[in-house]
Write a structure and sequence with these properties.
The structure holds two protein chains of two kinds. Chain A is mainly alpha-helical. Chain A has 13 helices and no strands. The longest helix of chain B is centred in the C-terminal third of the chain and has 20 residues. The chains are: A mainly alpha, B alpha/beta.
Chain lengths: 289, 583
């Protein structure tokens, strides 16, 4: 009985592995080609178009489009917004992740769900919320007008909308990381005599720093590229409340293709830079862990 | 004393995970807390370190009360199972962390670091990152880091758990050596009894949040006081025996001369026979020790230095076997034999052998076995399967017998069985229970458990006795019950009259006496309550106050028993009557 099984097994071994490798190769080739073609059609081609269109009238026209003061204002506004929003969301994300990973409290699951909310809501709605709150006919509209404060169609509104849309990124990145790493290192630090701040800055922060950087990078990418929410609250005032994505739309609608695609190319480069940082962070992070 | 714990209790969601633990650890002592997972030993260690607060009690380190002192100011060194090294710091930075916190100068830090690295045999590893070290090396760094600030106490939480056997042994030796060299008081938590034996000056054994016993390793192994310790610390055969004036009787064989308990009449006891104390020979004449029984070899396992046997006892005699190293239900005796013994007499499965016992240890526990007693066989059988009873018996690794007494409860009815009543007799609670209990107690039953049909494991055990002669036995039995049930103990003192009556002072004194006797003689911490009024009424009232309570009631006098205590035996709570008449 056992000999028969052995023989059958041996016979199978001579014919099967070759067959399997051959079939296997086809399947592998098929999947790899499909994914590459798909990426080329959906991702690479449009991205290439951006640069082709931007440079279609030559490099001088391309550079010239950045001399436009409105374009410069849009770039400046985007950078300022990201510069304010990312640090605030970083602090918030750290606090939220810390409290969720380290403590047990009532409403913890509600907090986790709420953090995800901006990812689920359409960006346009996110913008609308702020118009409903702070707009002229909104809840605080009259009060704001009386005190001569402008939020909607001004910088604060843009920042609020961007903050709302981007706040999940840091927390989302840190919560699983902190939960996985546990509390022991902090406890060790405490028994060694370290206080709360020292434990946080010397132990916790270095422990989660790669996750934190990654979260900030994602947060920044979204903050710079956000269109929908910002479009609703900005009012599209040229040179004043136009961020880069909004400015691109305006230029495009004016048939200024070179200008539109030049700014778009800048945004794309920023995105590429973000991805490079992310890759570096991931690699360094893996090597250290 | 380096570490003093006084009635430390820690609750988790209302349930005690550490239950009234009191403990003194001397200067330079290596103390091992041993227990199964979930016994509360790690929680206790974290409480000493200050990482988790306690709900009741007091902790002192070197005479300084630190109960309310923050963890970082307690000056202890703690080593975790998973090392908990700072991954982003080098070995040097890790070790110097505590010194940096204390703002020590760089040169002094370096000197101390090198001293420590030499101590744990890791010289020259200063600039490595933890990820570049093996598990054993990382744990050495963790030990060095925990010792850097010269703590007065070193706490180790399962430090070898994540290491393989060989490294474990090596590290064990290192830690013991470091501990001796520094003379630092050390507490180690583990679930591995071999580790405990190898390292400890003293072992404390925990189960269900209680510290059951403590002592030197060899003392605990050779003369444990509780079933749990007997079976947890090495393998043990638990055998029911009778203590008679002539000696300890297992079945019909006298296996040891009795250390006579003064004035005690013949009673049932639980004995411990270690597997290595069992002798096997071809026939009775071949035994060099006391004969126990005839048996058949069931299983032979070769494990290197030792051979493990499983012996099935002759069915006529095996009734007295209780539990075995593995806690299994089969009535088989566990035996280990050395190579030398194996060569003297080789055995094969199926072979008939004579079994002898070299040494028998009698557990001082007052609870031996349970016998469910009813007037019909069907009722007795049903009672013996009551969930709380089976749970208790399983935890105590004892058995439940049945006994049918057709005349049970009839005042003049004679006893059916010819045997005396041994162990704890169990009857069903109810309106007839008072008569039945009275009947049984008058015919020789000493411990009697009245069990309601739906009784669950109690969260609180109330203790009370009527008559001083029952005090010792009631306390002993209460302590034994509470070792197997995670409940709090409350002693009820009841003084006739009201708070203004002259009996008040006397009642208080009795209360404190009872408390200190429970603590001293049985290691049982109990709360005390003083009530005023009629004894039976107060007991009934207190018992009815909350569900999940059990009463242990000591009585000396059976006069009017059914009338006085009948009401207690009809309720929803289990009641254990301890009857000890004055001789």
């Amino acid at each position: 009985m056992s000999r028969a099984v052995m023989a059958g097994h041996a016979a199978g071994e001579t014919s099967r592995p070759g067959q399997r490798t051959w079939a296997h190769a086809i399947v592998r080739w098929f999947f790899i080609t499909t994914s590459l073609l798909f990426i080329a059609a959906v991702l690479l081609a449009p991205l290439a178009t951006v640069f082709v269109m931007a440079l279609s009238k030559g490099i001088e026209a391309y550079l010239h489009s950045f001399a436009d003061p409105d374009t410069l204002a849009a770039i400046r506004l985007t950078l300022i917004t990201a510069g304010v929003v990312v640090p605030i969301n970083t602090v918030f994300g750290l606090a939220a992740a810390w409290s969720i990973a380290k403590f047990e409290f009532r409403g913890k699951s509600v907090l986790i769900t709420l953090i995800d909310l901006p990812l689920a809501i359409s960006p346009v709605i996110s913008g609308m919320i702020f118009v409903l709150l702070f707009g002229l006919h909104g809840w605080f509209g009259v009060w704001l007008q009386e005190h001569d404060l402008s939020i909607i169609f001004a910088l604060p509104g843009i920042m609020l909308a961007t903050m709302f849309v981007t706040f999940p990124y840091v927390a989302r990145e840190l919560i699983p990381l902190m939960q996985q790493l546990g509390n022991n290192e902090e406890e060790a630090a405490i028994t060694l005599g370290a206080g709360g701040w020292m434990t946080f800055f010397r132990v916790t922060l270095p422990k989660v720093r790669w996750g934190l950087v990654y979260g900030m990078v994602l947060c920044n990418a979204r903050a710079m590229g956000e269109f929908g929410a910002v479009s609703v609250v900005s009012g599209h005032i040229r040179g004043l409340t136009n961020t880069m994505p909004l400015h691109i739309e305006i230029l495009y609608n004016e048939y200024n293709f070179v200008g539109a695609f030049a700014v778009a190319s800048l945004l794309t480069l920023l995105a590429a830079l973000t991805l490079v940082i992310k890759t570096l962070v991931e690699r360094t992070g893996y090597r250290r862990r | 004393m380096s570490i003093v714990l006084d009635q430390v209790t820690k609750l988790y969601a209302g349930v005690p995970v550490v239950n009234d633990v009191s403990l003194d650890i001397g200067d330079g002592e290596f103390f091992v807390l041993l227990g199964p997972s979930g016994s509360g030993k790690s929680t206790l260690l974290r409480s000493i370190a200050g990482l988790s607060g306690i709900d009741h009690g007091r902790i002192a380190l070197h005479g300084r009360d630190v109960t309310h002192v923050a963890a970082r100011k307690r000056g202890v060194g703690l080593v975790f199972q998973n090392y908990a090294l700072f991954q982003h710091m080098t070995v040097a930075e890790n070790i110097e962390f505590a010194l940096r916190v204390r703002r020590m100068r760089a040169r002094a830090r370096r000197q101390r670091r090198q001293e420590l690295l030499r101590l744990v045999a890791l010289e020259g590893m200063d600039e490595r990152l933890p990820a570049q070290l093996s598990g054993g090396q990382q744990q050495r760094v963790a030990v060095a880091r925990a010792l850097a600030h010269k703590p007065e106490v070193l706490l180790l939480d399962e430090p070898f758990g994540a290491l393989d056997a060989k490294i474990r042994e090596e590290l064990r030796r290192t830690i013991r050596q470091v501990q001796r060299e520094l003379g630092i008081t050390t507490v180690l938590v583990t679930h591995d009894q071999e580790e405990a034996f190898a390292m400890a000056d003293r072992i404390g054994i925990m189960n269900l949040g209680r510290l059951l016993e403590m002592g030197a390793p060899h003392e605990l192994y050779s003369s444990p006081a509780t079933r749990f310790v007997a079976t947890f610390l090495g393998a043990a055969n638990l055998i029911l025996a009778r203590r008679t004036p002539d000696g300890i009787l297992i079945g019909a064989t006298t296996v040891a001369s009795a250390e006579r308990a003064s004035g005690e009449r013949e009673n049932e006891v639980v004995t411990v026979v270690r597997p290595e104390e069992v002798e096997v020979a071809a026939d009775r004449a071949g035994l060099s020790s006391g004969y126990l029984a005839a048996g058949i070899v069931d299983e032979v396992v070769f494990t290197g230095a030792l051979e493990r046997l499983r012996l099935r006892l002759d069915p006529a005699q095996h009734g007295s076997l209780l539990a075995f190293g593995d806690g299994g239900g089969n009535a088989s005796l566990q035996v280990t034999r050395t190579q030398h013994e194996q060569r003297g007499f080789e055995v094969r499965p199926g072979q008939a052998v004579a079994i002898g016992v070299r040494r028998v240890h009698v557990l001082p526990t007052p609870l031996s076995s349970f016998t469910a007693c009813a007037s019909s066989a069907v009722d007795a059988e049903a009672l013996s399967r009551q969930p709380l009873l089976t749970e208790l018996a399983a935890r105590m690794k004892t058995r439940i017998g049945t006994r049918t007494e057709p005349q049970l409860g009839l005042p003049e009815g004679p006893c059916q069985g010819s045997d005396t009543f041994v162990g704890t007799i169990v009857v069903a609670s109810g309106p007839r229970c008072a008569q039945e209990a009275d009947w049984l107690l008058r015919r020789g039953a000493r411990d009697l458990l009245a069990l309601p049909r739906d009784a669950q494991a109690p969260q609180r055990v109330l203790i009370h006795w009527v008559g001083e002669a029952a005090r010792g036995a009631t306390l002993a039995i209460s302590a034994s019950v509470l070792r197997h049930v995670p409940a709090e103990a409350v002693y009820l003192g009841i003084v006739a009259g009201d708070a203004a009556s002259p009996g008040h002072g006397h009642g208080m004194r009795e209360l404190l006496d009872a408390r200190s006797e429970a603590q001293m003689a049985h290691g049982l911490d109990m709360r005390t309550e003083l009530h005023f009024g009629d004894g039976e009424q107060q007991l009934a009232r207190r018992l009815a106050e909350a569900p999940g309570q059990m009463l242990i009631l000591g009585v000396t006098d059976l006069q009017d028993f059914a009338r006085r205590f009948g009401g207690l035996l009809e309720g929803e709570s289990p009641v254990l009557i301890v009857h000890r008449g004055s001789p």
